[in-house]
Amino acid sequence: MSHWTDAHCHLQDRFLSQDDRVVDDARETLARAYEGGVDRVIVIGTDLATSREALAMTALSGPVEIYATVGQHPHDALSDLEPVSALAREGHPRLVGIGECGLDYYYEHSPRSSQRAAFATQIALAQELDLALVIHARDAFDDLLDVLASEGVPSRTVVHCFTGDANEVVRCLEIGCDISVSGVVTFKNAQSLRDAVRLVPLDRLHVETDSPYLAPVPYRGKTNEPAFVTVVGEYVAELRGESFTAVREATRANTARLFGLQP
């Protein structure tokens, strides 16, 4: 019997340290994930340092399969992107995606023009290397679609931690994007997201934690971790009126397809 896959998490040292305390190391976190029914995770890069760390983490031995992405978050769009691109071109055997990259107009830590340029460059990199594209989008939906229309949507693209509404999910699906759902779907104020999640075809759906952020109810306010992807998956199954097994098997297969893994 297969286990759950966490399609998007952050296990690098930077993310395991919160409130000036080390939560624990990645091995302990992954051991809890396996005990909870998770046997595959995708560790996401957000800049050069965390991308290198994500690739290094794939060497950890244990029952949980670890794969990595390399990317530059829109918050860091002013940083030189070439070292990140060069790292991706090294061809690490467990590099499976580019990102997370995209647009974030909620915090706007980088100018919008710089965010758009960095996003376009990483779209092109995913196309060049035939890797999945992992998109971050917050309060920038129209511009996000504009950049994708201009640059082209890679054949394997996912909008991670989707938080949009029904109209936005349909527009993403129409251009070929998959949709990944995090613990936000369990939040009390997320009804529009729940309505959107019901519209996603089962063969385009993924589940993730985005840990250490956004722990699902009933763990909200605590440090998130890959073990909690089972909570997200089971909530999504109930929301959609599908069996836990069907959602687990489909999301595992979808993430394998997206990232070019064995099913």
Tell me the CATH superfamily. Answer: Metal-dependent hydrolases
Low-confidence spans: 19-23
Task: Give me the Rg, rounded.
Answer: 17 Å
Largest sheet: 8 strands, parallel
Main-sheet strand order equals 1-4-5-6-7-8-9-10
Using the alpha-carbon principal axes, give the shape.
globular
CATH class: Alpha Beta
The count of β-strands is 10
**CATH-scheme architecture:** Alpha-Beta Barrel
Q: Helices and strands, in N-to-C order?
A: EHEEHEHEHEHEHEHEHEHH
How many structural domains? 1
Mean pLDDT, nearest integer? Answer: 95
| End-to-end Cα distance | 12 Å
How is this structure best described in words?
This protein has 263 residues and is α/β, with parallel strands linked by helices. The chain has one domain (4-259): TIM Barrel. Helices cover 40% and strands 19% of the residues. It has helices at residues 13-16, 26-35, 48-57, 82-89, 112-129, 141-151, 166-174, 191-197, 229-240, 244-259, and strands at residues 4-9, 17-18, 21-22, 38-43, 65-70, 95-104, 132-138, 157-159, 178-181, 205-207. The strands form two sheets. An eight-stranded parallel β-sheet has the order 1-4-5-6-7-8-9-10. Helix 4 links the parallel strand 5 (65-70) and strand 6. Helix 5 crosses helix 6. The longest helix has 18 residues, at 112-129. Residues 19-23 have low confidence and may be disordered.
